[in-house]
Amino acid sequence: MTVNQQILLDNRPQGEAVESNFKLVQSPLPTVGEGQVLVRHHYLSLDPYMRGRMNDSKSYAQPQPLGEVMQGGTVGEVVESRHPKFKAGDKVVGMGGWQEYSLLDPSVPGALRKVDTTHVPLSYYLGAVGMPGVTAWYGLVKIINPKAGETVVVSAATGAVGSAFVALAKARGCRVVGIAGGAEKCRYAVHELGFDACIDYREHPDTKTMAKALKDACPNGIDGYFENVGGYIFDAVLLRTNAFARVALCGMIAGYDGQPLPLANPALLLVNRIKLEGFIVSEHMEVWGEALTELGGLVAAGKLKPRETISQGLASAPGAFLGLLKGKNFGKQLVKLI
Hints:
Elements: E1 3-9, E2 22-28, E3 37-45, H1 49-53, E4 74-81, E5 91-94, E6 101-104, E7 112-114, H2 131-144, E8 151-155, H3 160-170, E9 175-180, H4 183-193, E10 197-200, H5 207-217, E11 222-227, H6 232-239, E12 241-249, H7 267-271, E13 275-278, H8 288-300, E14 308-312, H9 317-325, E15 332-336
Parallel strand pairs: 8-9, 8-11, 9-10, 11-12, 12-13, 14-15
Antiparallel strand pairs: 1-2, 3-4, 3-6, 3-15, 4-5, 5-7
EC number: 1.3.1.-
Protein name: NADPH-dependent curcumin reductase
Enzyme class: oxidoreductase
């Protein structure tokens, strides 16, 4: 191969993201310089945070630049290396972006690392044993910090983060309740992922009915909440929180198209003395080793069985990404390139 297919962010969304925001192009394969590694991607990761970066607005990360390759996680194989710690054939995970090949500098923190596929499939390093898994670990362990017997709740329960969250929380003796979209996802959450209960938000489309469902699923109240969504679901959870509950604020996908997400009862944060902490997992690289070790162990022991939705070919990435934002995926959303 002498050509590299790439997907660029061509223009910024006006409200809801659409396929015409992206552009598929071809470019020559880059030349490998001293200290660099050329990687052929096997899978690329699609994640909700990418939607926020498409906007030209103030956030925790710089916006995705226009006219450049969409940024994101990738796994693949080294095809050429001029770096002493990498050789052709090494399986690696990195931030290669929406393209078939990437030229990376392993000296940049988080750019590239080798992975062992003996017991963990390569694709899992983009999900359960990758950034989403570490995200679940940090929110649960460092912010919610549950005691055995406590009740914890997670929204987007059957996605990559929620799948890891339940395994980690059950290992700590918690009652774990999920919130997901659709009866099939809720059955999967309970019967395969190990949730004690799962609430279908499509059956409970407002604060009142969601709060009632949470009361039934969490008879002893809610001690910890991992927030991925925002909106009325967050309002309903706050109505059921116990005193000194902890909230790990990871995502607000309900507001990614630009609409505000006001809280209906912010006084509950005070009344219940709730600890609420937002976090970005890439700012906590010091915990990744510990988190990945536990997550890899759960996969190897069969206690973490993540599901994947895989679209084929680079050109399918924009459509798959827009489907992810609407909850059409089941588990971790990937694009298979090879």
